[in-house]
């Protein structure tokens, strides 16, 4: 199963909104075939492993990180090929929460006399697909709030200079996240201040879909975002008071404008529903502080990824990652659970999950 997990990870960034899945076939204590889900729409891990196998699979055992599917989707059910190839025993990591599967894959295999053992390295397998599990159940994107700050909790100096807070290794990790998650979201202030590209610079053609929250359509026509909207999918979200001529012009530049039927600020919960309907399974939220505060308030954040650089910049008015009004009492703080810590060069990365309820 460890090998199957390794294989599954090769699919990161290519399968969304489908899961990443790895599969290993073993006979006489030897791996006779391997496979993983390479790309959305392509064959599933099990079918890739079994069709690649040169040896006779009769009586072999199969390890798969996610329960085999039993439905006709873009491809035929994996249970069919497992039965056809006369596999004797199947070891499963996670149960598939997809309503079309949800235990039925295991049941069908058992009905065909195949022994099935579930929950092998379950936690590791579940972690592979935290995005898929959330999206298939809620139909809204899994939101990862990411920010980098100094040891005194600042994301920039008082004058706004922010290049760079963290070092090379941490920044490279962020690029990998831009590949892994389907969308990237920032507020208009970040566009006005930094004129970012919000693309993925470690690999071509894996840029995330850019989502800009811009209630009044203040985005400059000459910004990098608008200038590249023909090449990289870009969604700008505004509310009803935004200028309709500007909307038209942006659309001519290749920007998709989502207009929410409300006044004032963009409603993020509603936006998550809209993005979910567009098939976007995950969002890397790169702030700034006002948008981050709103995202926490509207309860759309699932995971936090906080980079801390060994630096202090000071300044009472230097920006911090979460602005807004904040909570009134320590008792009301947002709590983070299952914290993990990792060193990246001289920086550290803290990850954790928003505690619900
Ligand atoms: C995958 N890859 O290796 C496995 C999946 O859209 P389809 O027809 O490819 O079906 C996708 C569903 O199949 C997915 O939601 C999940 O429930 C199941 N298993 N999917 O993309 C795989 N094993
Ligand atoms: Zn399948």
TrEMBL record:
Keywords in alphabetical order: Hydrolase, Metal-binding, Multifunctional enzyme, NADP, Oxidoreductase, Riboflavin biosynthesis, Zinc
PROSITE patterns: CYT_DCMP_DEAMINASES_1 (PS00903), CYT_DCMP_DEAMINASES_2 (PS51747)
Catalytic activity: 2,5-diamino-6-hydroxy-4-(5-phosphoribosylamino)-pyrimidine + H2O + H(+) = 5-amino-6-(5-phospho-D-ribosylamino)uracil + NH4(+); 5-amino-6-(5-phospho-D-ribitylamino)uracil + NADP(+) = 5-amino-6-(5-phospho-D-ribosylamino)uracil + NADPH + H(+)
Cofactors named for this entry: Zn(2+)
Name this protein carries in UniProt: Riboflavin biosynthesis protein RibD
EC number assigned by the record: 3.5.4.26, 1.1.1.193
Keyword Oxidoreductase: yes
Cofactor binding: number and manner: Binds 1 zinc ion.
Pfam families from the UniProt entry: dCMP_cyt_deam_1 (PF00383), RibD_C (PF01872)
Oxidoreductase is among the record's keywords: yes
Gene from which the chain derives: ribD
The family this protein is said to belong to: In the N-terminal section; belongs to the cytidine and deoxycytidylate deaminase family.
Function: Converts 2,5-diamino-6-(ribosylamino)-4(3h)-pyrimidinone 5'-phosphate into 5-amino-6-(ribosylamino)-2,4(1h,3h)-pyrimidinedione 5'-phosphate.
Pathway: Cofactor biosynthesis; riboflavin biosynthesis; 5-amino-6-(D-ribitylamino)uracil from GTP: step 3/4; Cofactor biosynthesis; riboflavin biosynthesis; 5-amino-6-(D-ribitylamino)uracil from GTP: step 2/4
Domain CMP/dCMP-type deaminase per the UniProt entry, residue ranges: 1-117
InterPro entries named in the record: APOBEC/CMP_deaminase_Zn-bd, CMP_dCMP_dom, Cytidine_deaminase-like, DHFR-like_dom_sf, Eubact_RibD, RibD_C, RibDG_C, Riboflavin_Biosynth_HTPR
GO molecular function: 5-amino-6-(5-phosphoribosylamino)uracil reductase activity; diaminohydroxyphosphoribosylaminopyrimidine deaminase activity
């Amino acid at each position: 199963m460890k090998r199957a997990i390794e294989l599954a990870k090769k699919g990161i960034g290519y399968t969304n909104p489908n899961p990443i899945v790895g599969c290993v076939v073993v006979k006489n204590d030897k791996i006779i075939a391997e496979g993983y889900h390479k790309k959305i729409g392509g064959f599933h891990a099990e079918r890739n492993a079994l069709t690649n196998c040169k040896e006779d699979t009769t009586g072999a055992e199969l390890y798969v990180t996610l329960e085999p599917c039993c439905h006709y989707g873009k491809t035929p059910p994996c249970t069919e090929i497992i039965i056809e190839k006369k596999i004797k025993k199947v070891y499963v990591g996670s149960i598939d929460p997809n309503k079309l599967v949800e235990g039925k894959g295991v049941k069908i295999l058992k009905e065909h006399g195949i022994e099935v053992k579930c929950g092998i390295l379950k936690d590791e397998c579940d972690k592979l697909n935290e995005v898929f599990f959330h999206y298939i159940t809620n139909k809204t994107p899994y939101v990862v709030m990411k920010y980098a700050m100094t040891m005194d909790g600042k994301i920039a100096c008082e004058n706004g200079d922010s290049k760079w807070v963290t070092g090379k290794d941490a920044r490279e990790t962020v690029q990998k996240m831009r590949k892994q998650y389907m969308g990237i979201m920032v507020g208009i202030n970040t566009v006005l201040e930094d004129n970012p590209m919000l693309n993925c610079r470690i690999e071509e053609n894996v840029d995330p879909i850019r989502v800009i929250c811009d209630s009044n359509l203040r985005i400059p026509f000459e910004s990098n975002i608008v200038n590249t909207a023909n090449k990289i999918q870009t969604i700008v979200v505004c509310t009803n008071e935004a200028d309709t001529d500007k909307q038209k012009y942006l659309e001519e530049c290749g920007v998709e404008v989502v207009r929410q039927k409300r006044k004032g600020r963009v409603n993020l919960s509603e936006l998550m529903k809209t993005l979910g309907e567009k098939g976007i399974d995950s969002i890397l939220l790169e702030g700034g502080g006002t948008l981050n505060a709103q995202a926490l308030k509207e309860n759309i954040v699932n995971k936090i990824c906080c980079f801390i650089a060994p630096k202090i910049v000071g300044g009472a008015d230097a920006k911090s990652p979460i602005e807004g009004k904040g909570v009134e009492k320590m008792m009301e703080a947002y709590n983070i659970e299952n914290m993990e810590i990792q060193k990246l060069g001289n920086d550290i990365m803290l990850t954790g999950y928003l505690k619900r309820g």
